[in-house]
Amino acid sequence: MFRSSGFRFLLIGGINTAIDFGLLFLLTWAGLPVWAANMISTGVALTFSFFANRSFAFRSTQRGALQAVKFLGVTLFGLWALQPLVILGAEALLHGLLPAPIVLGIGKIAATVVSMLWNYFLYRHFVFPDGQKGADRES
Questions:
Q1: Which residues is 88 bridged to in the sheet?
Q2: What is the value of pTM for the model shown?
């Protein structure tokens, strides 16, 4: 069932998103300011994502801070550089053709797809390369 690293990566992404959203709403419901709740929820989700991708999606056996630094750099570049560029590109292409909220939604969906592809490729070949041979074997 969990044959490919791509499927496992998507599964972890879904769980990661649920953790992020769930904690964000739970913490804000409990009275925490949104900025603080978001920092906690994204921090927990990012930590989960690193360990789950390393051990389950890509089956890396390496240990060490260098792998975590690479993961953080790849992930944050996707979030803070690629996503804004794709969103701005969508806004430039679609400006005036559709209402602004729809353009933003299209841009965010496109940006998410781009950053997912970016993350998968670089996690597999740069962050967790030692797990590449075993990553697509049957579980």
A1: none
A2: 0.85
In one letter, which amino acid is 78?
G
Could you tell me which of 123, 126, 110 has the C-alpha nearest to residue 54?
123
**Are 122 and 74 a contacting pair, CB within 8 Å?**
yes
Q: pLDDT at position 138, please?
A: 42
What 3-state DSSP class applies to 98? strand
d(CA 99, CA 103): 6
Domain boundaries, the chain: 1-59, 62-129
* pLDDT 10s digits, 43-77: 999 999 999 999 999 999 888 799 999 999 999 99
